[in-house]
Write a structure and sequence with these properties.
four-stranded antiparallel beta sheet, single chain
């Protein structure tokens, strides 16, 4: 059977051909047409069936392998991953939503630490907010959020991030995912059909952008952050960046690149979306970089969230919006919901105003510093040839491995030894070109568990190296 009966592509479609192939295969897996273990045609055969260049199919297969939907083994072809099952639909931007086996140690970057949530302080703030609320606070909230919270956020972002904004330009949102969806809806109205992203970045962001109808354009990242020269050459007029702590590499956008990026936006009539996803959790001793937004509040849309500092289940985030974008974003918001839940807004405003949030963050950062130091010590001891890249911040670290290490084999071997960890290739637009890397989450395991998990990783890595040497001897 020719595979173009299941995998449908069109050169007239606004999405790239590789994305169309990926989406078709993912859809057939989700709908139950492609079962775990099903063998797919070779890249040559599928390219012939679809009348495409083989390189297009190779790139699509490579990305699906990196994301865990397909498995490629020498001599047995490409198959639907054995661990996949037909499951309920999950939001595109939800990290690591694929089913995983139960493991003793979970080092995935998205894993949260339930013990870190400030239950007592949050309950205190919530009780105060309920006692002080007025009847109008129980009505439908303003689309951009309650005045009390917007005022507190404007003050907090100014003193903690250096953000230049006023309460009328702050928007309260249900997390970054909702904000990003609104931005992707507004950009085409500004005449923008392409959104540039950092490469590497979260793969589900690339997928989300494509599903939103925009063309996603990867721009390389090096030790100084996003390559602004490459961005300028691309012709894009909007870009999504994580300048304070690039995800997943952990690098900080240099001062020279920050100035160049803002200059690009001014000269190209472009827009910068600054995702400060873990800005509350700067762990390196010394001054934290201020927000990129302060260099040009009229061109940079700043986004923050409580997901990393408190809990992702709160679904609470905020935007500092350039004045020109505020109206269009509110219009997009009006078509989606009736605003964020009011009592949580009042409680978080109280949390900020009374200093409870600041005290919580001091404890949270101290706890994370000890975890990060435990990770560094364990890596030096058990993976001495590896290097932790970027700065120490947030909930994860990027662990660069020697070039000879086979990343997929290491991840699979770690899983067999009850360690769950993500490889860096999944975050790259062209994963086969990326150097071997592990993206290690250190927030959830205890210090003892973290050290033990890294020890196991070191043993698995050493076993792979010894096996490789034996084969080449």
């Amino acid at each position: 059977m020719p595979w173009n009966t299941l995998i449908d592509v069109s050169r007239e479609h606004e999405l790239p051909l590789t994305v169309q192939i990926q989406q078709s295969i993912k859809r057939e897996i989700a709908d139950g047409a492609l079962h775990p273990g099903t063998r797919l045609p070779s890249s040559r055969q599928l390219a012939e069936d679809l009348r495409l260049s083989r390189s297009v199919v190779v790139e699509a297969y490579g990305q699906l392998v990196a994301e865990g939907y397909l498995e490629a083994a020498h001599g047995s072809g490409t198959r639907v991953a054995a661990h996949l099952t037909a499951a309920a639909q999950t939001p595109t931007l939800l990290a690591d939503s694929r089913p995983e086996p139960v493991a003793r140690w979970d080092l995935r970057a998205h894993t949260t630490d339930p013990a870190a949530f400030p239950e007592r302080e949050w309950l205190t703030a919530y009780q105060r907010a309920v006692r002080r609320m007025e009847p109008r606070d129980l009505g439908y909230p303003p689309l951009s959020g309650l005045t009390q919270l917007r005022a507190e956020l404007a003050g907090y972002l100014g003193r903690a991030r250096g953000v230049h904004t006023a309460q009328e330009h702050v928007m309260v949102v249900a997390g970054f995912a909702q904000a990003f969806g609104m931005v992707c809806e507004v950009l085409p109205r500004l005449g923008i059909d392409t959104l540039a992203v950092e490469d590497p970045c979260h793969p589900r962001q690339r997928q989300f952008i494509g599903e939103s109808g925009l063309r996603c354009l990867p721009v390389p990242v090096d030790e100084n952050g996003i390559d602004v020269t490459a961005l300028a050459r691309s012709g894009a007029h909007a870009v999504l960046v994580t300048p304070a702590h690039q995800f997943p590499t952990g690098v900080v956008l240099s001062a020279e690149r920050r100035a160049a990026l803002v200059r690009w936006a001014q000269e190209a009539d472009g827009w910068i979306i600054e995702d400060d996803y873990d800005g509350d959790l700067w762990l390196t001793h010394g001054r934290r970089p201020t927000a990129l937004q302060r260099l040009d509040p009229s061109r940079v849309l700043y986004a923050g969230t409580a997901s990393k500092s408190l809990a992702p289940g709160m679904r609470l985030g905020w935007l500092a919006v350039p004045p020109r974008l505020h109206g269009p974003l509110e219009e997009a918001r009006a078509r989606r919901d009736l605003g964020c839940e009011a009592l949580t807004q009042l409680a978080f405003a109280e949390f900020l105003a009374t200093g409870l949030f600041d005290r919580h963050l001091r404890r949270r950062r101290a706890r994370l510093r000890t975890r990060a130091e435990t990770l560094h010590q364990a890596v030096r001891r058990h993976l001495p040839e590896a290097r932790i890249a970027g700065t120490t911040a947030g909930l994860h670290a990027c662990l660069q491995l020697p070039h000879r290490v086979d990343e997929p084999s290491l991840i699979a071997g770690a899983r067999r030894h009850s360690v769950l960890v993500r490889g860096g290739r999944a975050y790259h637009h062209r994963p086969w070109l990326a150097r071997p890397t592990l993206v290690v989450g250190y927030a959830s395991p205890t210090r003892t568990a973290l050290a033990e998990a890294v020890r196991v990783l070191g043993e698995v890595c050493a076993g792979l190296t010894d096996g490789r040497r034996a084969r080449t001897a």
